[in-house]
Amino acid sequence: MPNVSNLVKSIQDIMRKDAGTYGDAQRLEQLGWMFFLKIFDDREKELELLRDDYKSPLPNHLRWCNWAADDEGITGDELLDFVNITLLPRLKVLTGGGGRITGLIRMAFEDANNYMKNGTLMRQVINKINGIDFNASDDRHMFGDIYEKILKDLQSAGNAGEFYTPRAVTQFIVDQVNPCLGETVLDPACGTGGFLTCAIEHLRKQARTEADEQAIQDCFSGIEKKHLPHVLCMTNLMLHGIDVPANVRHDNTLARPLRDWSPKERVDCIVTNPPFGGMEEDGIEANFPAEFRTRETADLFLVLIMKLLKPGGRAGLVLPDGTLFGEGVKTRIKEALLNDCNLHTIVRLPNGVFNPYTGIRTNLLFFTKGQPTTEVWYYEHPYPAGAKSYNKGKPIRIEEFEPEKAWWNNRVESEQAWRVPIELIKAGNYNLDLKNPHRPDEGPGDVDHLLPEYESLLAQIAETRATLKRELHHALTQRAGNDA
Asked: Is residue 400 in a domain?
């Protein structure tokens, strides 16, 4: 069996030779739609064996097996022309039979581009992709890991890393929210589908019958604003055995007025890492009630999540420190959260969980809708023994959350855990950025040490100013001499 890791690396090496794919983002987008078609083709082969009446939603000449599967098939300019003139334009406007899957394919290709300019190199890439059998469970599972590696590589491509959440964080949130068979699950900012696939695997462990499996196919939904993560999300869901991942829409969740969400659209569980640190485009805030209007994306998502939960519904999400201590609109949002929901747990993550892509400190918030908060439990997640931060090579691991899991249903105060009654939070104007009281406050430092440091700093500043003054005087004198 071919090594999938080496295959993907060799594909990226071939693409680097092509003048059109000049960056990681282009290479991944190109790989995204190619993998989508190959995975879909493998899925169709399986369905043709299982169902006598299966009919592909794709015209024959557009199916991967008919233009790409033959290693000696079309290549060079003929292949480029087929992709640029026939394949992509036709998929963007796909119609006909096939129901939801036709619309899904059309949505997947509406913004797809072919960046490759060398048809021979493209044939080499296609032949490598043909080396993966997505119906073989070993290849599929191994590709899941590679898929994650590709996503991590993509994070260095500009701002593309914003839609990746470390797997351990995703897993912990899903485990603690604990979606059950028969419940609905939503990720309103689903990126590449990490939370959704994690929730699907969580539900599969509970499945006993074919009816259970069918329920899993339809119980989740997601919305993603950007084209590339949306295509990767659908691909990811197909890899996780979802036949028609049509419940994932390519849309801006926040562009819809809050009042337009109907009670029928409410869900049992929301698990998500909404984008933070970003600002929404002008006018988006007008979709929200006046007291909650802001352009800060994470705050708007928090308001939306409160609205979209059913009474008794549960949420687990990642939020930055700024939401916890922020004032103004943030205060009003937190007041609404604590009045309408039971914010029972905040897990405070240490610096570096999202390194090296953002240094913003993050928290995991867990709440249930329908009962006001009476107290908030905090748990300070420590670094593993011997570590001072996380990085690409040593990310946060799910095993590190075992102490939180053991504490979850039998809560006692400890060096890591403490509780704060709602009266204290109200008295502090809804500031949720509360420090661990069991840690000795290091304070500002010892005055005997700080004073010499301060005096030394003042001396350095004075010296720098004097140097700049001399250089400026010298430059002006020289210029005056030259003018004379």
From this structure: yes
Residue 129 sits in the same domain as residue 238: no
Those residues with Cβ within 8 angstroms of residue 104's Cβ, 6 or more apart along the chain or in another chain: 234, 244, 245, 246
Domain range for 316 is: 160-427
pTM of the shown model: 0.82
Residue at which a domain ends, from 100, 135, 170: 135
pLDDT in tens, 255-288: 999 999 999 999 999 999 998 866 777 788 888 8
Kindly list the strands in the beta sheet with 220-224, ordered across the sheet, starting from the edge strand earlier in the chain.
248-250, 220-224, 185-187, 267-272, 309-320, 362-369, 341-348, 375-380, 417-421
Percent of the chain with pLDDT over 70: 89
- Rounded CA-CA distance 150/27 in Å is 10
Domain total in the chain: 2
- What CA–CA distance (Å, rounded) separates 365 from 345? 6
Q: Are 282 and 418 members of one domain?
A: yes
Q: What is the pLDDT of residues 129-152, one digit of tens each?
A: 898 888 777 776 666 666 666 666
Q: What is the pLDDT of residues 149-194, one digit of tens each?
A: 666 666 555 444 454 788 899 999 999 999 999 999 999 999 889 9
Contact in structure between 145 and 3 (CB atoms under 8 Å): no
Phi, psi dihedral angles at 373 (to 5 degrees): -75, 135
